[in-house]
Amino acid sequence: MQKTQLPKIMKDFLVYLTTIKGKSQRTRKEYEYDLTLFFRFHMAAQNDMDLTEITKINIDTITIEEIREITLEDLYLFMEYCEVQRQNSASARARKVATLKSFFKYIKGKRRLIEENPADELETPKIARRKPVYMNMEEASQFIDGIQLNRASPRNYCMMMFFLNLGIRVTELCQLNKASIQGRYLTVIGKGNKERTVYLNDSCMQALADYEQSGKTAYRGEGDEPLFVSQKGTRFTRQTVAKLVKQINKQSGLQKERLTPHKLRHTSATMMYKAGADIRSLQHILGHSSVATTQIYTHIEDEELQHVLENNPFNIVRESDSPV
Fold first, then answer.
1. CA 38 to CA 100: how far, in whole Å?
2. Rounded (5°) CA angle 137-142-146
3. Whole-angstrom distance, CA of residue 21 vs CA of residue 247
4. Is the dihedral of CA 169, 159, 280, 125 positive or negative?
5. pLDDT tens digit sequence for 101-149
6. Model pTM score
7. Helices (H), 20-152
8. Measured between alpha carbons, how far is 196 from 83 in angstroms, rounded to an integer?
9. Would you list the DSSP string of 126-160?
10. How far is CA 88 from CA 69, 81, 96, 102, 214, in A?
11. Of the listed 40, 93, 265, 266, which one is catalytic?
């Protein structure tokens, strides 16, 4: 399949995303997809072309002069197309809005190529907040007990302990190297290549020692040696870890719906919060740039909130005065 040719300004923007803004290659690909779709749609709309043939539209000829003519109404038309014809969810459309805002902000603020930013007034679709999926302690214990005893079990157990104790992201786990550990501290490279140091508690240290002594598979790749090595002697991928979590979920008999490595992160954050961790400490442990994101992870049941209010020291019912 021939690779899509991109306009130079779009290539410049994508380079800016990774080299200056520190975005991951995955995020860069998502932005490239969104912008490619937008420019193809815009050209189709301007030239009255058939939208069923949109993937065949060549966009590398788009000029900055044409981009200057793009209006807020053009962006609205694109968002309507994504919602009605492509049936994109609110979250998918919100990502496209973020892409467009970032691109037009770059060509106006950084490159000074346009005078008016058409995306300034583009609203982000409201996303219904879904109830986070996480495990309670009983479910987490059952999940861990589901790790089958075999040559790989010390490694798998250690990986799950890192998820549940440290609340790290699956990409962070995959990127860990042996050199990431210094004594009882783990250096984690998070989103935007931001580095943070996380303390390894006794559970993690014990699981790590058992894994190191288990005669693990030798690394057969190049570069830094990963902390966790697959049976093939390679670094783990996000997809492989997700399959492992799904397998353990099934083998344990828990069969928790939609349980993924990300949900293990939810579980870790929720359990730490319930155990008394303050929101700012959790923000650092989880590697969030915004405390608002951390608050989404620290899911508390309505019954627990009710219990807190019931036990408020000021919850004193005055006795009504007796009638005279």
1. 9
2. 145
3. 36
4. positive
5. 999 999 999 999 999 999 999 998 887 666 667 899 999 999 999 998 8
6. 0.64
7. 25-46, 64-68, 72-80, 90-105, 137-145
8. 38
9. P-PPPPPP---HHHHHHHHHTS--STTHHHHHHHH
10. 26, 9, 10, 20, 47
11. 265
Long-range Cβ contact pairs of 74-77 (< 8 A, separation 24 or more): 74/42, 74/45, 74/118, 75/100, 75/118, 75/119, 75/122, 76/122, 77/45
Instruction: Look at 118-132, 244-258, 292-306 and tell me which has the smallest mean pLDDT.
Output: 292-306
Sheet holding 185-189, edge to edge: 181-182, 185-189, 195-199
**Banded model confidence at residue 37, pLDDT cuts 50, 70, 90:** very high
Which of the following is catalytic: 40, 169, 256, 266?
169
Looking at residues 152-172, what average pLDDT do you find? 94
169 catalytic? Reply is yes
Annotated active-site residue in 40, 96, 216, 262: 262
User: Which residue in this structure is represented by tokens 């397998």?
Assistant: 247
Q: Which domains does the chain have, with CATH numbers?
A: 8-110 (1.10.150), 137-300 (1.10.443.10)
Q: Cα separation of 4 and 60, whole Å?
A: 8
* Active-site residue flag, 262: yes
Query: Exactly one of 28, 86, 191, 196 is catalytic; which is it?
Result: 191
What the block records as the tokens of 27 is 């995020």
d(CA 32, CA 16): 12
Q: Taking the alpha carbons of 97, 171, 176, 282 in that order, is the dihedral positive or negative? A: positive
Q: Is 265 a catalytic residue?
A: yes
